[in-house]
C-alpha cells in the first residue's frame, strides 16, 4: 500500500480554506479508495509541520483544542533526498520514520501553492500531485502569468503593474501609470488567491484606496480594466500532456459585481444586499459550492472559445495535474480574456468534476496517477553527469 | 498486537461483552439458533454493533442484568477458588478457578442461548398463541372483505398498491409497513372499527406453518399470492416446502378468489385451473399493453375489446407492471370507476428502500435495499440493463437465509449482475462474495469489481463514489447478524 502524505494549512491567508480542501476533498476520498495509507501533514501558521491521525478530524480545527493537540503531537521533521521521509515523534520520546510515496499538496496561497512546497518535493525526488514549481510560481503571480499568456498571443485584459514599494515612495507616479486605463478598474495583489485584497474602483479616489489595500497584502500590484457585459467563468482542467476540461462554471453574481473572499467562503456563497438579486430572483444560496451555474449559460460558440482558451493557457503555463483557469467574457463583443490561473483550486473543484462525471474518489485517483506519470517521465531525464571540471583545480 | 489486545478487552470486560451479547440477542429477535450461529462466527466483538446499537427495552435490560449477575458470580467464584487453593494441598482447585475465570464469557454467551430457547418455550410461544386467539376473534367477526397477501417477495408492495388504488372508492385498512407477525396483527385488529370495506392483511412467513397459522387466524375471503422464491430456506429447507406453506391459504379461500402471480415460475406447480392469475401481459380478463418504465415511473395500458385504459405510476421497473395491472383490474372488479382507478394508480409512488430512485451528487441512485430475494435481483438487474447512463454501478452484499442452495443462488446472482453489464460492481465482503464472483467469472464480466470490507462506511460515503451521469442500483442490505 502506497503512502500518500497530504500537506495542508500553511502560512497563508488561505490557511483555513486549505484545511477544508484537504479533509473533505482529498483525505476522505483517498481513504475510501482503500489503496493508500493517508498521512495528514498539517503545517501550522508558525510553519511547523505536524503529523497525527487526529489531524484528519475537521472538528479539531473548529474547536479550541488545536493548540493543545499540537503541543502533545510535537513537530515533525523531514529527510529529503532519494525520497521524502517524515520523522514523527512517538509517545516514548523517539521518532518513527514514515517514507512518503506520493505527496498531495492541499495548500492555497503563499508558501504552498506558489511553488515553494513543490520545490521541496522536487528536491526530495518524490512524486507529487498538481503543478510543478515553475507553473505554480508563474500561475500565482498574476503579472507573470499575464505576461506569459500575452506573449503567446492569447487575449488578456489591458492593465499595468508595479511594486508596492513604489506606492510608499511616489504614489502619484503609480496613479499616473494607470492614467491610460479606462474605469472601472480592478486592483489586485499579484500573488493572492480567493479574491483577497481585490477592489473594484470607479475613480481616482477609489483607486488610491484600492492600491493601499492591495499593498497591504502583496509587494506586487496589478491594475486592470474591467470587462464590459461581463460573464465571469472558470474552468477546472486536469491532466499532464493531454489535459481534459471539466465544465465551465459561472458564478451567480450581478454583472458589475465581483467575487470576493467573503462571498466565496465566509457567507457560504451568499452575497448580502441587492447585488445578489437579479431580476428579483435571489441567487447563490446553496452554500460554498452552490454559488455558481454549471455549465455556464453561454452560447455554444462562446463556450467552445472559452474552453479552448483555458486549455491553451494551461499548456502555455506548463500546468500539470490540476489547475483552474479563470476567464472573463464580454458577451456582446463575444471576446474571451484570460484572467488568472489557480494551480490548486479550492476543494479541487470536486463539485464541478462530479458534474462532469468524475466522482471525488475517481478524481483523487486520477490525480495521484498523473503525479506518478509525470514523476516517471522526469525520472527518465538525465540530471547529473560526470566531468573532469574539479580535476582542473 | 493492538487488535488482539482490543479483542481480548472486548471479550473479557463484563460490561462490554454483556452489552454485545444482549445486542446480538435483540438483533436476532431473541431466537437462540440465529444467536448461536452469529456467536460462533464472531472474530471481533468490538465490531458487533455496526449498523445499530442496543435498544434499552425492558427485555434487553433484564437480559443484560442477568448476564452481568451471572458473569460476576462466576468471576467471584473463580477468585475464591484460586484464593482457597493457596491454603489447601489440592492443586486442581486452582485450575478449576482459572478455568472458571477464563471461560466466563463463553459460558454466559451459551447460557444466554439456553435462556432464549427456554424463554421462547415458556413465555413467547404461549403469549403468541393467546394473541393469535384474540386476533382471530377480532378478524373473524369483521364484516368486510378480508384479503390475505402472501408470498416470498412483493407482498408489502402489493398491499400498498391495493391500499392506494382501492382507497379511491372504498374504506380500506391495511397492516402497517412490513409488520406481518402475530403480535403486530393483533395490534392492527384492535384498531379495526368494523366499518372498513376491505381489510388487507400481509402474511409473513419465516418457518413452516406460519402462513397456515395466519390463515386460520384471519380466515381471509380472498388471497393474493405475489411470488415464490428462495427465502428463509434455513427454516423451510426447500422451495417446495415454502410454496406448500404459502399455498395453504387455499384451504380457507375458494379457488376463484385466489389471485396468483403467473410470472413466478416457482409457483406454476401450485397454481390450480380455477385460480385467477396476473402478469405483465394478462390480468383478470384484460390484456396489458405498451408497458414502459424509466426513472420517472412506469406506464401501461389495460385493453379489453375496444376499451383502452392508460395508466401511469411512479413505481420503477417493468416487474411492477403485473402488480400494478392487477391492482387496477382488481379495483375495477370491486366497483371502482375507471377514473378512480386511474387516480389511484397515479398516486402510487416508490416505496422506501424498494426501487426508490433519488439523486445523489448528480447521479441517480435506485435504492432497493429492502429487496431480499433472487426474483428481486432479477427485476433490478433487468431494470439496470434497460436504463441509459454514462456509467452503471451495481451494489449488493448478496442474499440472506438461502439455506443449502446459497452457493448456487449467489452464482446465479453473479450471472444476473453480469448480464446487466454494469461498469462497476461493488460487493460487500462476506460469506457469499466468492459465489457471486464465481457467477461474474462464468460470464467473463469485464467491468470493474470492488469488494468493500466496511459496508457501512461505503454506504455512508456513496456520494464520493458517484458523479453526474451515473446510475447506481443498490440491492439488499445485511444487518449486523449476517456475515
Largest sheet of chain A: 4 strands, mixed
Q: Largest sheet of chain B, if any?
A: 6 strands, parallel
- Give the N-terminus to C-terminus distance of chain A in angstroms: 49 Å
Topology, number of strands of chain A: 19
Query: Looking across the biggest beta sheet of chain B, what order are the strands in?
Result: 2-3-1-4-5-6
Structure classification of chain B: alpha/beta
Which of globular, elongated, flat, extended, rod-shaped describes the shape of chain B?
globular
The number of helical runs of chain A is 12
Average pLDDT reading of chain B: 91
Strand order of the largest sheet of chain A: 3-2-1-7
Q: How many β strands of chain B by DSSP?
A: 16
Rg of chain B over CA atoms, rounded to whole Å, is 26 Å
Mean pLDDT of chain A: 88
Q: Termini distance of chain B?
A: 24 Å
How would you describe what is shown here?
The complex is a heterodimer of chains A (393) and B (483). With 393 residues, chain A is α+β, with helices and mostly antiparallel strands. In chain A, 34% of the residues lie in helices and 24% in strands. Chain A contains 12 helices and 19 strands. Chain A has helices at 15-33, 58-62, 66-73, 116-124, 133-139, 142-151, 164-177, 204-217, 261-266, 300-316, 350-355, 360-379; strands at residues 2-9, 36-43, 49-51, 77-79, 84-89, 95-100, 102-105, 159-163, 185-189, 199-201, 220-225, 230-239, 244-245, 250-251, 277-278, 281-282, 292-293, 321-330, 335-342. In chain A, the strands form 6 sheets. A 4-stranded mixed sheet of chain A has the order 3-2-1-7, with helices on both faces. A 4-stranded antiparallel sheet of chain A has the order 8-11-9-10, with helices on one face. A 4-stranded antiparallel sheet of chain A has the order 13-12-18-19. The model of chain A is unreliable at 254-258 and 265-290 (pLDDT under 50). With 483 residues, chain B is an alpha/beta fold. Chain B has 17 helices and 16 strands. The mean pLDDT of chain B is 91. Chain B is globular. Chain B has a 6-stranded parallel sheet, sandwiched between helices. In chain B, strands 11-12-16-13-14-15 form a 6-stranded mixed sheet, covered by helices on one side. Chain B has helices at residues 2-12, 14-27, 32-41, 58-85, 91-140, 155-166, 182-191, 210-218, 233-236, 239-246, 321-333, 338-347, 374-386, 406-420, 433-442, 455-460, 462-465; strands spanning 145-150, 172-174, 198-202, 222-225, 258-261, 276-278, 282-283, 286-294, 297-304, 307-313, 356-360, 363-368, 391-396, 424-428, 448-452, 470-475. In chain B, a hairpin with a 2-residue loop joins strand 11 (356-360) and strand 12. Chains A and B meet through helix 1, helix 11 and helix 12 of A and helix 17 of B.
